[in-house]
Design brief:
Elements (H helix, E strand, L loop, with lengths): L1 E4 L5 H13 L3 E6 L4 H8 L3 E3 L5 H12 L7 E3 L4 H13 L5 E2 L5 H8 L1 H10 L7 E2 L4 H6 L4 E5 L9 E3 L16 E5 L8 E8 L2 E14 L5 E8 L2 H14 L3 E9 L6 E7 L7 H5 L4 H10 L13 E3 L1 H10 L5 H4 L7 E3 L7 H13 L1 H11 L2
Parallel strand pairs: 1-2, 1-4, 2-3, 4-5, 15-16
Antiparallel strand pairs: 6-9, 7-8, 7-9, 10-11, 10-13, 11-12, 12-15, 13-14
Helix pairs in contact: 2-13
């Protein structure tokens, strides 16, 4: 049985591929957008098929032409990213007889998790702890009884497009936005960094999980996580279990939390319905999310998971290196590797040659350069 990995050109897929192939010996079927798949063949040393996600028909033709080459094979779909997974939903709704197994939430729940405003409403209705939310018509009252807020795009990736309002005179930053495009949410003031619960579930039951605490981001405000550690907080697990049960969730999920300094209450910030950039930590800390997903769909018993605390993950190139050059972190802090307790995004579980080839591609392709400058701009 082969595991289908779309977006093989992405940094998280690179780690997923190395873990499943090199650590667990899984047979993989790799896909990447046309134009990148040839270079990916050099990196992975195997066939990487073209997969167009611009429209359904091209996606269908690309995927089926690859799997029909071996009519006796069965496949497992890995939800690496949202766009191909949404098209995969459509394919399996229209043509459910293809030999592809998967563990995903209902499409309506997947869509709900993607939409920050709909997810906020769902949590409020199910009495799950989330920050207070505001509509555009509430802005006048907010000016009179001010509290810091963040405007987030209803559907968006990470911090791109966020608007921060820290004082009443900054409310003008919200001029021209609409409730159809944005969720306006109270900013949770927290001395603690963002915590995440990363899990695999089936029909609303949490099967295995681990947590992490964000230590450093790039940029510092609203940036991607570049350094974090594994932690296990039972209260966060319990909230996550209630959320997954309410959603009747199946598959992977990442739930982000902040602890409110005023009340001590943990608040759900968002739910990501697909795999995440720090997925390597799930392997390194012993929770085994990836291989257990594969085993479940093969009809095998999942591996028992460990709870290894104080395991660290770093994305040191290029972002931590840039932070060093800009003086944001000191040289001693940069070299603080925590020894064998640290894994490195796009290096651990890879051969050195493959890792260096991928770093060359990831650093100099046009999309990465564009995203990098978006992170730098306010």
């Amino acid at each position: 049985m082969k595991v289908i990995i779309p977006d093989a050109q992405s940094r998280k897929a690179f780690d997923i591929i190395n873990i499943l192939e090199r650590k667990h010996g899984c047979d993989l079927l790799l896909f990447a957008p046309s134009g990148t798949n040839r270079f990916m063949r050099v990196i992975y040393g195997q066939m990487v098929h073209s997969l167009n996600v611009d429209n359904y028909e091209e996606f269908r033709n690309d995927l089926l032409s690859a799997i029909k080459a071996d009519a006796d094979e069965e496949y497992i779909w890995m939800a690496v990213s949202e766009e191909p997974t949404l098209l995969f939903y459509e394919l399996m709704e229209k043509e459910p007889d293809h030999p592809i197994r998967y563990l995903l939430p209902g499409r309506d729940m997947f869509e709900l998790a993607r939409n920050k405003a709909d997810f906020q409403k769902f949590c409020e209705e199910n009495e799950l702890p989330v920050p207070a939310s505001f509509s555009i018509k509430d802005l006048q009252d907010l000016e009179q009884n001010f509290r810091p807020v963040i405007a987030k795009k209803r559907i968006g990736a990470g911090s791109v497009g966020m608007k921060y309002v820290e004082s009443p005179d900054q409310l003008s930053r919200l001029n021209g936005i609409s409730d159809r495009e944005y969720l306006i949410q109270e900013k949770v003031e927290s001395r603690k960094k963002i915590h995440g619960v990363f899990c695999l579930a089936r029909n609303g039951e949490l099967l295995t999980w681990h947590g992490h605490e964000r230590i450093r981001t790039f940029p510092e405000k609203g940036g991607v996580t570049v350094y974090s550690r594994s932690v296990y907080i039972d209260e966060l697990k319990e909230i996550t279990e209630k959320l997954l049960k309410a959603l009747n969730w199946s598959g992977f999920a990442m739930v982000e939390f902040l602890q409110d300094d005023r009340t001590g209450e943990w608040k759900i910030i968002e739910l990501n319905p697909r795999l995440w950039g720090s997925v390597m930590l799930s392997e390194f800390c012993g929770s085994g999310l990836l291989i257990n997903y594969v085993k479940l769909l093969k009809g095998e018993n999942p591996e028992s998971s460990s709870k290894l605390s104080e395991r660290y993950i770093r994305w040191f190139f290029p972002f931590e290196l840039i932070s060093l050059f800009k003086g944001k972190i000191g040289f001693r802090e940069f070299l603080n590797r925590k020894g064998p307790k640290t894994c490195y995004i796009n290096f651990t579980y890879s051969s050195l040659t493959r890792a260096l080839l991928f770093q060359f591609y990831f650093t100099f392709n046009g999309r990465s350069v564009k995203r990098f400058f978006k992170k730098l701009l306010p």
